[in-house]
Structure formats: C-alpha cells, structure tokens
Design a protein that fits this description.
Elements: E1 2-8, E2 13-16, E3 31-37, E4 44-48, H1 55-63, H2 69-75, E5 90-94, H3 106-129, H4 144-154, H5 158-169, H6 192-198, H7 209-222, H8 227-233, H9 237-246
Antiparallel strand pairs: 1-3, 2-4, 4-5
Helix pairs in contact: 1-2, 4-5, 4-7, 5-9, 7-8
C-alpha cells in the first residue's frame, strides 16, 4: 500500500521510483510529492525535470550544494550532457547525499572532459569571430573605476581585469552560471570554494561584478601576477592577452 505526502515547496517534484508514471506528476505545480512504499522505503526518489533545469541547478535546489551535480550524474548515467536535459523527463535522486561531494565515475569523467574540450573550442571560435575582440576604444562603463582601483591595490594591470571580466561573462553583473555544470558562477566565474578562500569583508558577494573584480585581482596577485596566474585562474589566456593589448597593455 502506498501512502502519499504532499509538501508545498519550490524545489520541483519528487516521487518514489515506483511512482514515475503516477498521475500525480504535474509539470505545472511546484510541489514535492513523496509516496512511501512499505516495501521500498523512501531513500530514492524520482525528480521530475523542470524547464531550464541542469544537474547543477537541481543539486542546488535539492542539496543546497550545486557541486553535488556529479552525484546526480553518477546516478543517472543515461544523461548525455549535465547542462542540457532536453528530452529528460525525470531522474533518480537520493534525498540524503554523502557528507562530501563525490567524484564522477571514470566513464562519465571521460565524457565530461570531452564535453568541456568541445565547449571550450566552440567558445573560443565564437569569441574570436565576435566584435568583442575587434579594435575598440577604452572602456568607460560602470566598472572602469573598479578595474583601476583594484588593479592599483593589488598591482595588477587594469587591462587584465577588464579583459578577464569580458572573457568570463561579457562584462556582465549579477548571478551568472557558466552552463558547464562545474559550479563556477558570477561575473568573474569563481568556483565557490576558491571565492571563499580569496573574498574579503569588503568584497564578499560572488554575484557582484564590483566585488568579483577586486577578488580576481587578489587571486592574480597571490598567484604571481603574470601569465602563470592567468593559467591558474583557468581562463582563456590568449583571448585575455588580446583584449588587454587592445586596451594598451604591452606586456604582462
């Protein structure tokens, strides 16, 4: 016999695996429906995928930690791309994740590396062909003072900070996820763990472009303030160099 529990929430829809075809499933509601089976227990459920979901966003909703996207992919290896769930109606989830984030299974890790390589190549091609790397006047936007002040504080060329901002998010501000499922976020695309290690009391909001510019400058300074620092950052060094040079930087 199955007993139903309905809880109002914004997390999406969860059902026991045995109830995947239940008429209770509705994409129009934001509820969790837990159907407890006396024989199966309630440790594993089916999450009904919502529009614009990725494994990273689902992990954040369910586990309050987007880094648990790897756990979700391990449990659902049929997924081809953790950032594109088109055609995926539901996935199996655990209500209680491990105390520490898990690594991808070897086969999925290999697939993930190939996906990242393909995406990076496509991004670089699109970037090189875009007006972003065309000759342009010096920037005079909202964050110009921040580039210069952060650069002066940490002895990083402002052109590098400007270029890094352009490469990582197109110079945007606000909550930005990179779409690759890695967990990087914000205008300067920091991993949360790295952000927590380098943020300061005055610049502590990972989703703020202003704060991110200062923290990026601090990170580069801590890693040698050179090409090696850009490599450690994990950005497209060649494109950063190209944009910085267009703003007058002759060496870094």
């Amino acid at each position: 016999m199955i007993a139903g529990i309905v809880v109002n929430t914004a997390l999406g829809i969860l059902l026991t695996t045995s109830a995947l075809t239940s008429p209770l499933i509705s994409h129009k509601t934001n509820t969790i429906m837990l159907e407890k089976s006396s024989s199966m227990g309630i440790s594993t459920f089916v999450y009904v995928v919502q529009k614009s979901d990725t494994l990273s966003s689902i992990a954040k909703k369910l586990y309050k930690n987007e880094d648990n996207w790897k756990l979700l992919w391990n449990d659902n290896p049929q997924i081809k791309d953790p950032d594109n769930l088109t055609g995926i109606k539901a996935i199996s989830v655990k209500l209680q994740p491990p105390s520490a984030c898990v690594d991808l299974a070897p086969a999925l890790a290999e697939k993930w590396n190939k996906l990242q390589t393909t995406q990076a190549q496509a991004s670089t091609l699109n970037f090189v062909e875009s007006p972003l790397v065309a000759t342009r006047p010096a920037p005079n936007g909202t964050f110009m003072n921040d580039y210069m002040q952060a650069g002066s504080q940490y002895h990083v060329p402002w052109q590098i900070l400007y270029a890094l901002h352009q490469v990582e998010s197109g110079g945007k501000d606000g909550t930005i996820f990179n779409g690759a499922g890695s967990g990087a976020r914000g205008p300067m695309q920091f991993m949360p763990g790295t952000w927590n290690a380098y943020k300061t009391p005055d610049h502590s909001n990972i989703d703020s472009a202003q704060d991110s510019i200062y923290v990026a400058a601090k990170y580069l300074a801590a890693h040698g303030n050179n090409q090696g620092a850009l490599s450690a950052y994990g950005t497209n060094v060649a494109i950063v160099d190209q944009i910085a040079a267009q703003q007058g930087l002759t060496s870094y």
